[in-house]
Amino acid sequence: MFVGALVALLAVTATAQPFLPGTGFLPLGNLRTTDSGGPYNISLLTVQANEIKGALAAKKNFTDKDIIHFLTNVECLEGLFDTWGTFGYGFNNNLTLGGPTPIGARKANLSDEVLPFMQEVALNEQGHALFTRQAGSDLPCPAIDFTGGFNKYFGAAYNLTGNETIESKFGAPFDPFANDENYLLSVLSLEELGATGNKGLTGLLTNPVLANAVAGLATSATGQATVQRMLLWQRRNNTVYPFNETVQQVFARISALRDSLDGPPVDDQGLVNTDSRTIAVPQYYVNMIPTDVRGLTFSRTPQQIINIVTLGSLDGKGVFFPNGLGGAINKPTGYNETASGLDSFPASGAKVATQLSTEQIGTIPGPKPPANVTGELDLTQSLTGGKDNETAATRGYVTESPGSPYFSNASQVAVAYPLKSSDASTPVAAGGRRLFF
Ligand SMILES: *[C@@H]1O[C@H](CO)[C@@H](O)[C@H](O)[C@H]1NC(C)=O
Ligand SMILES: *[C@@H]1O[C@H](CO)[C@@H](O)[C@H](O)[C@H]1NC(C)=O
Ligand SMILES: *[C@@H]1O[C@H](CO)[C@@H](O)[C@H](O)[C@H]1NC(C)=O
Ligand SMILES: *[C@@H]1O[C@H](CO)[C@@H](O)[C@H](O)[C@H]1NC(C)=O
Ligand SMILES: *[C@@H]1O[C@H](CO)[C@@H](O)[C@H](O)[C@H]1NC(C)=O
Ligand SMILES: *[C@@H]1O[C@H](CO)[C@@H](O)[C@H](O)[C@H]1NC(C)=O
Ligand SMILES: *[C@@H]1O[C@H](CO)[C@@H](O)[C@H](O)[C@H]1NC(C)=O
Ligand SMILES: *[C@@H]1O[C@H](CO)[C@@H](O)[C@H](O)[C@H]1NC(C)=O
Ligand SMILES: *[C@@H]1O[C@H](CO)[C@@H](O)[C@H](O)[C@H]1NC(C)=O
Ligand SMILES: *[C@@H]1O[C@H](CO)[C@@H](O)[C@H](O)[C@H]1NC(C)=O
Ligand SMILES: *[C@@H]1O[C@H](CO)[C@@H](O)[C@H](O)[C@H]1NC(C)=O
Ligand SMILES: CC(=O)N[C@H]1CO[C@H](CO)[C@@H](O)[C@@H]1O
Fold first, then answer.
1. 0.70 exceeded by the pTM?
2. Which residues line ligand 12 (CB under 6 A)?
């Protein structure tokens, strides 16, 4: 029966071209397997455990179809912004299914150094929207506002309150299409919501075919974001109009804003690591791939994403989505608020401020060149739990007993090829250093 179902599934999949929006959903539980190799000790994977707990709470009784519908909203936002900015036009009607042209949509003023990369990103994003259609989403793209959206979003990153706008504060509105810097900052602001949000969905989709596809969305978005970070890094000292701050400073504000809107976890990161506690690279190292201390990318729940793109709007409307998101997953609130851990985020449903405020991020120190050997030693010390003084050596999430090893020595992993040591007495292992933890 299982084999029969699989063959039938493959046959349907292989002949399902062209797709018919609104069809093609698979029954729940297809191809589920169980694993008898465990139990596994995941007690050290606190970041991942919290992400999954929060995500399961967020999933409630939403179906795979609801998740695919949610993805239509965010892939329309990203894909339309990238396609308009790069090519000067939007999706064809098979992708929008009648959704309107976003407010403020136009071709961006991009240099030849940036344009080819953004073309690749835009075409990838169109593909992502196509995936949601082929997976059965029949929701039209929602109403989207690029002009108001980016002005409110960047305004919030500058902590503008009340009637204050970017125009009233800085003398001109923010134009996301104005030049390489403004466009890249805007694209990356959204890209990493896709990267983290899509990853967060992979463990929640009941159907593994859909989960596999959404893992592809997440890895693709992460790759795109890394290219964008690199392009921004190369322009990090350029002044951003109208803020009169550098690219690096403006992006640090965006990162702090996103982190303040996604609840307790400290996950969002700037172009340089300025928070030594929670990240795989030492302080002031370049940070093209934001990860936890294990080098694993982060996840966000749909509700966290909605809280970010609507700046904590309780009804899920405003900023980029003037009429809200289509489908059942359309509010920042709505999951079990009595469960423990991150499950309760956001407790009140409102904008949640956490560890990194825009005030704290304030002035960004200039990037220091990577200090090779020092950093390597810091990493070694932190992984083995030695010399933990809550600076570069303090990573991980156990803070109650500073100084004690956070990592056990239950396992080991090779993390790097040996670097030349400035200290002649420090032995360097051949063929990769094995760190015990
Ligand atoms: C839209 O889809 C229909 C059928 O699914 C197809 O015939 C048509 O060529 C598509 N249009 C475009 C512009 O891709
Ligand atoms: C489950 O779904 C139904 C129908 O959509 C809804 O009325 C109900 O409130 C949901 N229950 C929970 C706990 O989310
Ligand atoms: C915002 O502007 C409106 C009218 O333009 C005014 O009534 C209101 O008092 C202003 N609010 C603040 C906080 O300045
Ligand atoms: C396009 O961007 C370049 C480089 O930033 C700038 O010099 C030029 O003024 C911009 N053109 C327009 C029309 O905005
Ligand atoms: C921009 O900031 C610099 C200092 O960082 C300052 O010297 C300059 O006057 C500012 N320019 C404008 C137009 O405000
Ligand atoms: C919320 O979670 C708590 C703890 O896991 C559970 O006891 C309670 O039944 C849940 N409530 C709902 C409405 O699912
Ligand atoms: C934002 O501005 C308000 C006053 O308008 C101030 O009280 C608050 O501390 C500021 N927050 C940050 C994070 O800068
Ligand atoms: C940016 O400025 C720093 C000094 O603050 C300098 O070391 C670096 O070379 C500059 N990088 C670029 C790409 O302009
Ligand atoms: C923390 O430990 C590192 C490595 O031992 C050392 O270089 C640094 O000075 C220490 N910082 C503080 C504030 O103790
Ligand atoms: C799981 O690993 C943690 C940390 O290494 C250890 O303290 C704990 O005893 C382990 N649990 C089991 C059941 O092995
Ligand atoms: C492993 O951990 C145990 C208990 O924490 C400790 O006694 C032992 O020395 C450690 N072994 C190594 C190789 O670090
Ligand atoms: C490329 C680089 O950063 N090299 C540095 C490695 O570390 C030594 C000692 O701190 C420095 O002298 C090098 O400049």
1. yes
2. 369-374, 422
